[in-house]
Design brief:
Strand content: 35-45%
Order of helices and strands: EEHEEEEEEEEEH
Number of strands: 11
Structural class: mainly beta
Helix content: 10-25%
Length: 213
């Protein structure tokens, strides 16, 4: 992993490979320790810019190297309306099924940026592609993959989606990411890496409570 810094934000580069050369590893460790000391952050050096930790399964950014956790996304039906320009009124036009999963204290709490759908890994038009999301409060990057297909019970009610949840990276206050592709001519390759935009840790930004939030 590599980390570039400006006055207000940083950029974390997560490669797909598990490790680089010995020199590269020494450079990364030194840079991480230095940045950690300068920030005086309670986060560990491995939170600054790294793939999934060993106790999380050691997932790489493409989702390989770990099994992840089996999760369910619960269905929630939402109304959508159409707008009539002549009457200046909206009317119910139908319903669409959405799916949601709640954050926990050890995942993303209530604050999640993204998502990024990796369409190149989509198997067919009815399959759901892997999704990357960014847990800004928790310094984590998640990938959801192996989605089941949307289905309904005999009474017509939508059934939960099954998926695999993986921690594939760590960054300080990650806000968004850009997926680096391996080969633009092939549609089924996993990502080669990811550039992640980091913000200041929130405890640093909140210097004058309660005036600042």
């Amino acid at each position: 992993s590599r980390r570039l810094q400006s006055s207000s934000s940083t950029l974390c580069a997560l490669p797909r490979t598990a490790s680089g050369s010995m020199v590269g590893r020494r450079e990364r460790r030194a840079a991480a320790l230095l940045a950690s000391a300068l920030l005086a952050s309670p986060a560990t050096a491995s939170d600054i810019c790294s793939p999934g930790h060993r106790d999380e399964g050691s997932c790489l950014v493409d989702g390989s190297g770990c099994s992840g956790d089996a999760v369910e996304l619960l269905p929630y039906e939402m109304n959508f309306s159409s707008w009539d320009n002549q009457t200046q009124k909206s009317s119910l036009a139908g319903r669409i099924t959405s799916y949601a999963i709640a954050g926990q204290k050890d995942t993303w709490e209530m604050y999640l940026h993204g998502p990024h759908l990796h369409m190149k890994e989509r198997k067919d038009e009815e399959a759901l592609p892997p999704v990357y999301v960014f847990a800004t409060f928790m310094n984590k990057i998640f990938r959801f993959d192996n989605f089941s297909r949307p289905s309904r019970a005999a009474n017509g009610s939508p059934l939960p989606l099954k998926a695999t949840q993986k921690v594939v990276g760590h960054a300080l206050a990650p806000s968004t990411g850009y997926i680096l592709e391996d080969d633009h001519d092939q549609s089924d390759l996993p990502p080669r890496g990811m550039l992640v935009a980091e913000g200041q840790p929130f405890w640093v930004s909140n210097l004058d409570p309660p005036k600042e939030v």
